[in-house]
Amino acid sequence: MQLDLFRDSHDTCLRNEAIDALRRRDVEALKRAVDRLRASFPDDYSLGDLDLLAGTALDETLPDSAPRIAERLARIDTQLYPALCRVLGEKAARRWLEPLFSRLAGGAAARVFHREHARVYAGALFLRANDLAAARAAIHRVPSWRRIPEPLAWMTEIAWRENNPAEYWPLAAELAWIAPSLFDPLLSRAAPEAVRRLYADFLSGFEPDDEGEHPEAAWFPAWLLVEHGELLEHFRPIDPHPSKPARCAALLVNLLTGERQGLSPGIIEQRQRLRALAPRLFARYMAFR
User: Fold this and answer.
1) 118 close to 124: Cβ distance less than 8 angstroms
2) pLDDT tens digit sequence for 109-152
């Protein structure tokens, strides 16, 4: 069978013309290219995605309320992003969406943070736009942001993306205690490879003392202090938390600090408290002594 090289390459040329217009964000050129592709190849596999993108992806109107921004985000996540991935590839799709998130964030910049609308707060949107400085500034406008799961998670992600251990270790520890359900997916998506490796080691070797009373992630900071005491300096700025895993971590910070100072007088009492709270963790801690 002899191929018609012109015809078999013409669809590729028309498809690429549409993709180039999409990359340039030129809506009129995109629509014209899609029409030409449809006229010559009405069954082309890319037409469904290109029609969707031509009709909605370049809509630059700004939603005027939190629910409308949420609706726009839902459409982006469930329709536009999958179509962009199929047309441009995953990495290019994420980059293509960044200006869109930036515009949404600018429109939401004056809105006060409310947990029920956390996804549409400017800090979250600037983070999706990969504008880390603007995201950080917006998060700092949230009163007591470090005690609220979503802003704490956003700031942890910023520190992870910037690969700043002095900032991300205390934030990650607090997130593991305050919102362990946010910690796991965020770590998988945004943490540096070194952090992911440590967490994998933790999950494979840790035996919790509380029989499921707390999620495993909540014990990660205490385990790190036992297994990787060289990280002690990063854990000193941690804000206190009343949970058992957090109290164990605080005790370990004091114990490791006291040991470096030459077995301070209260160290025996602190060891007894750690043993009472978490016997298995205490046994592992003592194995290094």
Assistant:
1) yes
2) 889 999 999 999 999 999 999 999 999 999 999 999 999 999 99
Q: How far apart are alpha carbons 194 and 172 in whole angstroms?
A: 14
Query: What is d(CA 40, CA 119) in angstroms, rounded to the nearest whole number?
Result: 42
Q: Which residue has the tokens 């293509």?
A: 96
| pLDDT recorded at residue 136 | 98
DSSP-based helix, strand, coil % in the chain, nearest 5: 75, 0, 25
Helices (H) and strands (E) in the chain, counts: 17, 0
- Are 34 and 18 in contact, with CB atoms under 8 Å apart? yes
Angle at 26 between CA 22 and CA 31, to 5 degrees: 75
Say if CB 168 and CB 156 are below 8 A apart: yes
Q: What does the block give as tokens for 50?
A: 């290109």
Nearest Cα to 199, choosing from 170, 177, 178, 219? Answer: 219
SS3 239: coil
Model confidence, pTM: 0.89
User: Closest Cα partner for 203 from 188, 190, 285?
Assistant: 188
Which CA distances in Å does 112 have to 69, 101, 117, 139? 14, 18, 10, 11
Query: Which residues, 6 or more positions from 155, have their beta carbon under 8 angstroms from its beta carbon?
Result: 136, 139, 145, 146, 171
Work out the angle at residue 146's Cα, subtended by the Cα atoms of residues 140 and 148, and round it to the nearest 5 degrees.
105
Site of tokens 């890319």:
46
For the stretch 136-195, pLDDT in tens is: 999 999 999 999 999 999 999 999 999 999 999 999 999 999 999 999 999 999 999 999
Q: In the numeric block, which tokens belong to residue 8?
A: 């078999």
